[in-house]
Design a protein that fits this description.
The structure holds 2 protein chains of 2 kinds.
Chain A lengths: L1 H18 L16 H10 L9 H4 L14 E7 L2 E9 L1 E6 L2 E5 L6 E5 L2 E7 L2 E7 L2 E5 L4 E6 L2 E3 L5 H17 L3 H22 L1
Parallel strand pairs in A: 1-9
Antiparallel strand pairs in A: 1-2, 3-4, 3-6, 5-8, 6-7, 7-10, 8-9
Helix pairs in contact in A: 1-2, 4-5
Chain B lengths: L8 H4 L4 H14 L3 H10 L3 E4 L2 E2 L2 E2 L3 E4 L5
Antiparallel strand pairs in B: 1-4, 2-3
Classes of the chains: A alpha+beta, B alpha+beta.
């Protein structure tokens, strides 16, 4: 059955390419993602039209996973207004995932992690750089590339501890006096973020 | 196929992730030391004009801006 399909397809390829110079890349030239029974049925109904392609036919192939675990992790750390780290090779990063602090080493299992407000530390040899992230996501790929995106990331010494204490007290008070669900949620977010900054400054 | 993951409290209260993320970012910006705080607030200023269209014609534009109009 599969032999039939390729014969039918190659026949139409020859026919199509003789008609026009600018033929689209045929599905057989790209990683074949089409079901052969579908293609055969299509050919019976519409022999002059190319079978429709699926989105995966247009996607670039995934970066290959190296057979041996690389020694370094490549980190891309971006914010909406700047690219903090681009392709930096490091030994380890510790990210504040919503399930807790997660250590990422080269060869980490591919993961998408939602980040909570907390500290991210980048370890390169004995050099450790810490940032406080407001929230974001971390995409860990099979080829030991980590893409970390956050909305705000500040080095710890840019934070004013007195402002944090004031904010914490203010939101705790708002939480106690909140009425609607939305107000409660906003106050809760305030308490969580300020407690996280407090913990970060003292930890 | 129901998901068993608990819904985060902000989503249960009707907030989207983007709203949550922006609120967190604003709170962090408010806790910065002086020169960095002013820079970040300056960076986040927006200025845009919005006009709804009806009958193929733009209606009166609405201006939303963080920069004081001179």
């Amino acid at each position: 059955m599969f032999k039939q399909a390729s014969r039918l397809l190659s026949r139409s390829v020859a026919a199509a390419s003789s008609k026009s110079v600018t033929t689209r890349a045929f599905s057989t030239e790209l990683p074949s993602t089409l079901d052969s029974t579908f293609v055969e049925a299509w050919k019976k109904v519409a022999p002059n039209m190319d079978p429709p392609q699926t989105p995966s036919a247009f996607m670039k192939p995934r970066p290959s996973t190296p057979s041996s675990i690389p020694t370094k992790l490549t980190v891309n750390f971006v914010l909406p207004y700047t690219s903090e780290l681009t392709g930096k090779e490091v030994d380890m990063v510790i990210i504040p995932a919503s399930t807790g602090q997660m250590g990422v080493l080269p060869g980490h299992v591919p993961t998408i992690a939602e980040l909570k407000p907390g500290i991210m530390s980048v370890h390169e040899g004995t050099d450790v750089k810490k940032y406080f992230l407001s929230s974001g996501f971390a995409f860990l790929h099979a080829n030991s590339v980590a893409d970390i995106i956050a909305v705000e990331a500040v080095p710890l010494d840019h934070i004013d501890p007195s402002q944090v204490q004031k904010g914490l007290a203010e939101f705790q008070q708002k939480l106690a006096s909140a009425t609607t669900d939305l107000e409660k949620a906003e106050a809760q977010i305030g308490v969580e973020v300020h407690s996280a900054i407090n913990a970060a400054l003292s930890g | 196929m129901a998901s068993n993951a608990a819904v985060p409290f902000w989503r249960a209260a009707g907030m989207t992730y983007i709203t949550y993320s922006n609120i967190c970012a604003n709170l962090v910006r408010n806790c910065l030391k002086e020169p960095f705080k002013a820079e970040s607030i300056n960076r986040e200023k927006v200025h845009f004009s919005l006009s709804k269209w009806s009958d193929g014609k733009p209606q009166k534009p609405v201006l939303r801006s963080d920069t004081p109009q001179v």
